[in-house]
Write a structure and sequence with these properties.
CATH class of the largest domain: Alpha Beta
Strand order of the largest sheet: 3-2-1-4-5-6-7-8
Radius of gyration: 23 Å
Mean pLDDT: 88
CATH topology of the largest domain: Rossmann fold
Number of helices: 13
Oligomer: single chain
Largest sheet: 8 strands, mixed
Shape: globular
Low-confidence stretches: 1-17
CATH superfamily of the largest domain: NAD(P)-binding Rossmann-like Domain
Strand content: 15-25%
């Protein structure tokens, strides 16, 4: 974890080259994942972190070259990614901009306030700052949770302003796409409104649901509420295991947009409650159908959004079964668009939810049956 107060000073950085190394400032989950993805893409990476122990672990787990100071890390770098807690980004980004010719980006979950602060602090140097947010992460933290595949296929939002140098945007875009990510350009405020709904609200809802159930479990121990929780509850509350300190900064940094989405979501829940009170099955089914149809869109890539099929496949919990399923599909060139495993509460078995393009649905059923599975078409 990096903070501007603990920066080790170094000599001013030299000019950036189009083919030179990149640098990461902050070598936790995202910083180390950037280093791993860059290495796969053939790009050299230097890294620095205020916590020497974190930096050492990141250097052991990834090919990044550890630097003794921020100056040494960014010297000659073509792009510097600031991968620190949100509150530290503006000061560190401005520092790097003032001491190098590099293009600087960040990976923070909130963009409007960060971009505004960098513009105010860095002045004309802010033309080389490109706000960024890879839409990827984990409830786990630290370099041990990092992986190059974390960024592969992820949407990476870039948030330039009217004063951002277009060449800086293109440099960051080309780099993140070499990591396997999909670059999307948005205005900072548009980004914050969107992630309030698809990222920040889910975190708050997941945490609130987990806290709600925990209180009930503790209030009435004999009910063993948490002991009854199965796959659905575990899926919905996975995000509740995230770092409270990290999410405090994110939620407060985007408080106005998140509060708006909380109010809108609460209205929808109250509408569902009213339908239940009125025993209005039609309204309940309408909501469930709308949600089911929308959920299918999440499981598909743009080129298959014309339709998908979801197959439920019972599988025993033993080594090699899932590999046999995927190998059977690969042999017949049936592409799996999405794959989820739902374990049975009593263990020993579960269901694989296999999503394929609609035009391959019948073939997928046949392939799985021939391989000895008993698939059921859900959609």
């Amino acid at each position: 974890m990096t903070s501007p107060e603990s920066e080790t000073e170094g000599a001013p950085a030299g000019p950036a080259s189009e083919s030179g190394p990149i640098a990461v400032v902050g070598t936790g989950l995202i910083g180390t994942s950037v280093a791993l993805a860059a290495s796969v893409a053939g790009v050299a990476v230097r890294g620095w972190d205020a916590d020497a122990g974190v930096l050492s672990r990141a250097a052991t787990l990834s090919p990044l070259e550890p630097a003794g100071s921020i100056g040494a890390a960014v010297d000659g770098a073509r792009v510097v990614f600031v991968c620190t807690p949100l509150a530290d980004v503006p000061a560190l980004a401005s520092k790097v901009l003032s001491r190098s010719d590099a293009v600087v980006s960040d990976v923070g979950s909130v963009k409007g306030p960060v971009v505004d602060e960098v513009v105010r602090a860095a002045g004309s140097d802010a033309a080389r700052f490109v706000g960024g947010h890879p839409m990827a992460g984990s409830e786990r933290t630290g370099p041990e949770a990092a992986a190059a595949t974390l960024l592969d296929g992820a949407t990476w939002v870039l948030t330039p302003t009217g004063g951002t140098n277009p060449a800086a945007v293109e440099r960051v875009r080309a780099l993140v796409e070499s990591f396997g990510a999909r670059a999307v350009v948005m205005a900072p405020d548009a980004h914050d409104r969107a992630v309030a709904l698809v990222s920040h609200l889910p975190q708050l809802v997941s945490s609130a649901l987990m806290a709600f159930a925990t209180r009930e479990h503790e209030a009435v121990p004999e009910s063993d509420v948490l002991g009854l929780a199965a796959g659905g509850f575990r899926d919905l509350t996975r995000l509740a295991g995230s770092s409270p300190e990290l999410w405090e900064q994110i939620l407060l940094g985007n408080a106005r947009a998140v509060s708006r989405e909380v109010s809108r979501f609460a209205d929808l829940l109250l509408t569902a409650r009213d339908a239940l009170d009125a025993m209005s099955g039609g309204l309940v089914v309408e909501l469930l159908e709308e949600a089911r149809d929308g959920r299918l869109l999440l499981a598909t890539k743009p080129n298959v959004r014309s339709g998908v099929v979801v197959l439920q496949v019972p599988i025993p919990d033993r080594p090699g079964v899932l590999a046999r399923l995927t190998a059977a599909m690969a042999e017949r060139e049936v592409n799996i668009e999405d794959l989820q495993i739902v374990h049975a509460a009593d263990g020993g078995r579960g269901n694989a939810h296999v999503t394929v393009a609609a035009d391959q649905g019948d073939e997928a059923l046949q392939v799985l049956r021939e391989a000895g599975f008993v698939p059921v078409r859900l959609t």
